[in-house]
Amino acid sequence: LVLALFHRQEATPDDFLKKVEKKYAAAKSVRWNSTTDLKDGGSLGYEFAMKGDKFRLAITLAKPGVESEPRLLLCDGKTLIDAAGIEGKAPPSAAADMLHRLLNPGPMATMTALLNPQFEAKFTLLRAALERNEKVGGRPAQPVSSVFRTNHDELLVQTVWYDAETLALLKSTSFAPRSELKEVISQFELDAEIADAAFAIPKDDETA
Length: 208
Hints:
This protein is an alpha+beta fold.
């Protein structure tokens, strides 16, 4: 036990996130849902699912009194629809690359970039740390805090909590000069049965 604690203390944030990503990528499938309440009374939600070389990411930015269609990023292993809605040939690493983006730089930083592709947000890591373990919803959790500088010279401070035993994504918070976001992760699952139809590219006459 002492040795385990010693190695945990010596692990770097990069080592920890690589372990998380390796576990998620090795699973038969991974999926989770996220909801973030916004200051204007709206919400930002996304649903992510990945299975082998396929992934689906549906992002919904809801504003009070306005119906919002989800922005869909989709890969069926052969075809990729990106954040700008452009359809093209999927690189072999498309699903793995999206999983990596959601973990590095993290969920909220990635949502910012995907919702505003014309903004061309890029994040440079300035500092990262494994914080002291704490409980989230009664579960022992490992927080990972990061400070990024964007290419627009703004700072983003982000903390993501992972289940200390299962490595499940639990929640995240992010702070920027004009916003504070608190994300709640729900329905996190590894190795769930997900039909290939969930990753099918919609036909022109179909809606996302």
